[in-house]
Amino acid sequence: MKKILLASLIVATIASCSKKDSIPEKVYTKVSVTKLTINSFPAGDASGYNWDNLLNGTYPDVYFKITNSGTSTALFSLATSNRIENLKVADLPQSWSNTSGAPFFVLSNLAQAVDVDLYDYDYATTDQYMGTATFDFTNYTTGSTKYPSTVTITSGSTSIKLDLIWLE
Q1: Which CA distances in Å does 39 have to 113, 141, 168?
Q2: Number of separate domains in the chain
Q3: Single pTM value for the model
Q4: What confidence tens digit (pLDDT) does each residue in 133-154 have?
Q5: Containing domain of residue 106, as a range?
């Protein structure tokens, strides 16, 4: 009888323990972008013309801006001097990252979606808008695949991947 009682007590004790109870789950409140990769962009502008004329090399000179989604409020803007010159669709993917390895952008409000806007730098005229990918980081804070190390968004002909580090 003592053995049955002892065995029942051990089983009840083990069943009441949970691994989840012993290790608190991390909750991240910020995300840093360590690398941005362009996977695709439209081959021509909205009118179907080449991004640049033959004098400028025909292909776009690509740079990006990160803004609050739906606004023009810049959160990060790559210097146009860091653009990729005459980028062909066939040469994709192409990436930017900080040579020091440090993140080049940290978002401290995960509830704020951000737009990554691509532009074609033009020497003599206004830079041309190429496309946008919108990242809503609240989509990556719950569920079985939360806090991924990379996120790719495709919108029309524009596809952008972000490499991420989640921060407490």
Answers
A1: 20, 24, 29
A2: 1
A3: 0.81
A4: 999 999 999 988 899 999 999 9
A5: 26-167
